[in-house]
Amino acid sequence: MINRILIRIKVVQMLYSYLLVEKDFSLESQPSAPTKEKRFAYSLYLDLLTLMVQLSDTVERRGQGTPLAESRFIKGVKNDDRMRSLLARYRAEGFPFASVASSLAEKIKTSAIFKDYCTRGRDIPNADATVWKNIFDLIIVPDAALDTEIRRRENYTMHGVERARELMQTTFTDYFSSRGDSVSIQNALRQSLDAARELYFRLLWLPVELTELRERQLDDARHKYLPSAEDLNPSLRFVENQLVAAIRENPEVAEFTEKQKISWRQESPYMLQTLLKTIMETDTYRDYMAAPVSDFATDCEFWRNIYRQVIFTNETFLAELEDKSVFWNDDLDIIGTFVLKTLKRFDEAQLHGTQGTGSPILPKFKDEEDARFGRELMGYVLAEKESYRELIDEFIDKRVWDTERIALMDMVILYTAMAELLHFEKIPAQVTVNEYIEMARAYSAPKSAQFVHGILGVIINRLNEEGRIRK
User: Fold this and answer.
1) Around 189, how many Cα atoms within 13 Å sit in the side-chain half-sphere?
2) C-beta of residue 163 within 8 angstroms of C-beta of residue 123
3) Average pLDDT rounded to a whole number, residues 175-203
4) How far is CA 77 from the centre of its chain?
5) Any alpha helices (H) in 112-227, and if so which ranges?
6) Residue 62 — very low, low, confident or very high, per pLDDT cuts 50/70/90?
7) What Rg do the C-alpha atoms of the chain give, in angstroms?
8) What is the mean pLDDT of residues 112-139?
9) Cα distances (angstroms) measured from residue 447 to each of 403, 429, 430, 441
């Protein structure tokens, strides 16, 4: 039921919200009014970071290269302007603590910390920084040889060493706060997909509650003080609609609505009454009630028309959806098509006598691949967006586009498209390109589709030349 088109939209929406407020990671600044001790502490802090960069390039794991060098924490450290300058200088002059780097690298390589990271890294929230915090606290800081080297530094004091360690802990904390929402954004994606599933059942359940409301109205009319002949003998075609009865009796619908406590009557009585009144004023309703006979197919067709003509366009209903979930108005077009498809499946099951052989209710996902698709797609973007940005910047025509003023939504669409191109071999490249061009057309600026199309075209050419797209 939740297809990849909807999943892509939700991934882009979640990433946009996340990146809009994401805090940039940065190293600690040079202390103001520095004393000798503060200068010593800050210099030691930077040199400990360079040691970690050096170790990341040294610690190898068979078949996996240097996984610590690929961690986002180390990449963030390397991207800092001060560290770039310092690393360039040390590569020319020699690194501090070079005498202890080999022994530290061996300790890390044989540690449970490193092995666990290599085995389960991607499954652990903030693993790329947690592994370095653990290496720093449990391997680097206690190392006796390193301590000896530190004590030989000019202006050494124990308090200065403690201050350097505090700066390092603050750096880890800042990194966690800048990236910590990556767990919550995955949770937000899951909740959004769950909300889409709920909307599907709510839409299916709506005719049941509209029918029950009309039934109560007819019963009230029969029992009023002076009922008319029509009150006493009304047409029951609407309340005896066979499709509605089939939905009400469907065990999956019953289980979901009961578990989620779905009740339009209790939550939105005014909307329900307004919607019923609008339905009853349509020609579709009048023609249905006036028809000489009715069967299951006719009952299904009636509700398909009501969904299209009334429910999916009714302003009161749409406002109610918006109040209940920020996701639902965006979801309605896609979920609505699945609701109509489900009504057809009810009709086909009745026509072919297959009611007992399989439910007309669509599964949440087509298969396990689709169930993982959104989570994996988002994970790749979060892990690799810096490298995607570098490639995008390389191909932007600076004469036409200002790289600093490109809409964030365009960048998010490009990041997500690149992740899909690189990591989902079964999805044809042209399908990916078309989907994200349409998304840019729907969700971003007027020229966004042209921009996204042009950038993806040249990026695909480059990635194909490098053999990185395997389709």
Assistant:
1) 27
2) no
3) 84
4) 26
5) 112-120, 127-135, 144-151, 158-179, 181-222
6) confident
7) 31
8) 83
9) 15, 22, 20, 8
| Size of the chain, expressed as the number of residues it contains | 471
Q: Indicate the domain borders of the chain.
A: 31-179, 188-351, 368-465
Helix (H, G, I), strand (E, B) or coil at 201: helix
d(Cα 420, Cα 360) in Å, to the nearest integer?
A: 31
Hey, which CATH number is domain 368-465, 1.10.940.10, 1.10.275.10, 1.20.1250.20, 3.40.50.620?
A: 1.10.940.10
DSSP-assigned states of every residue in 321-362: HHHH-TTHHHHHHHHHHHHHHHHHHHHHHHHTT-TTTS-SSP
Question: The whole model's pTM is what?
Answer: 0.71
- Is residue 383 within 8 A of residue 72, CB to CB? The reply is yes
CB 212 within 8 A of CB 263: no
How does pLDDT run across 91-107, given as a tens digit for each residue? 999 999 999 999 999 99
Distance CA 300, CA 304 (A): 6
Instruction: To the nearest 10°, report the CA torsion of 353, 357, 360, 365.
Output: -160
261 is written with which tokens? 């406590």
Q: Does an H or E element contain 84, and which?
A: helix 81-93
pLDDT single digits (tens) 301-330: 999 999 999 999 999 999 999 999 888 988
Distance, CA of 167 to CA of 38 (rounded, Å): 11
- Measured in whole angstroms, how far is the alpha carbon of residue 384 from the centre of its chain? 15
